[in-house]
Amino acid sequence: MNINDFILRFSEEFEETGNLNKETKFRELEEWSSMHALLILAMIESDYNIVLTGDEMRACETVEALFLEVEKRKN
Amino acid sequence: MALFSIPNVSIKGLVSTVPVKEELNSEYDWGSEREGRLFVKTTGIAKRRIARDGQCASDLCFSAAEKVIEGLGWDKSEIQVLVFVSQTPDYITPATAILLQDRLGLPTSCIAFDVNLGCSAYVYGLSIISGLLQNGGIRKGLLLVGDTSSKIVSKKDKSTAPIFSDAGSATALEFDENASPMHFNLQSDGSGSNAIVVPDGGARNRINFDSLKMKAFGKGVIRNRSQMIMRGLDVFNFTVQEVEPNIRALMDFAGKELNQPDFYIFHQANFLLNDRIRQKLGISKEKVPYSLHEYGNTSCATVPVTIASEINKELGKRKLQMVLSGFGVGLSWGSVLVELNKVYCPELMEVD
Question: What ipTM was assigned to the predicted interfaces of this complex?
Fold first, then answer.
């Protein structure tokens, strides 16, 4: 699993990706809406075959935290 | 998994009804136009139907029932069972099914009762009424499935209002020794009960003054305790893990291949989710019709609404093998493999 691939796939769910990086607190993005939470969950499910719970998602603040959560579940 | 078959019961008619009033998601008060666009793109829901004041699920089902009885030329005195499945009954008590028995002029020898289910309603409902009809002791029955979710949802809650829509349906079933058996796979998991819930109004939390106080739970999410909470991420998590194995197990049990059925009718949750299920099952798009775009999530009635709005002409023409699948509130889910042979199914009807 590669964090750069993850960041790329994450940013594809947004219209204005801007300076999305691993430290980005995604919920603070201007564009962020609750639909994005669903889209990201769906992306993780289809790309990595991991289904995070709502609580697990809510516990992640940054893109990196989300990546690490997925990586943890994969191993 | 509850895997079982019910022989000797045929679906003879299916009528589905929606209220006249239409609401467009493009006119909903989104935080931003972009958010609205993303919602429609992700969920697939552009329009919804909203029952007028004083119009209940029972009314929508009543009209559907009258139509199916007339269409089949049934004698009302021969109808021996009526099951009403809904989350929005007319009253806490008495059961709406019994009120409908009277309104429809069915004999007092008719069995009538309610079942409280939402998304899984139609599949569960089919198993319940078919179970009662399979031995021939009672021979004709009506399954009425409908909801007016708009009455239990906050208009100011963007996580529910743009999703839910109202509808009713009536399915006529008959004892038939020549019928192909229906195969079912039904499941439940109460540990997920918080995924979709209306906190106040039952016996646990009776309606009180606090029940009606509107509270904000984030931007654009304002509701009170007598209104529905839907935790979308939890619903997604459950659905994406449980629906596909349930259907695979059903088809295994029935000795059929996944590509054999003519149609798969899924509960109309949202497009992103439904299409993921379709992909996981490896089914082609042509076999999976949607009513989601025009009619939204009509809760327990999504399966009959989709059949009536999208493929009603097919039902009258030829024998069809279909998988129907409902999943959601409870958590409760199930699927059925059913054969429909020349079923009376008029186009989706509007009811004022």
Answer: 0.90
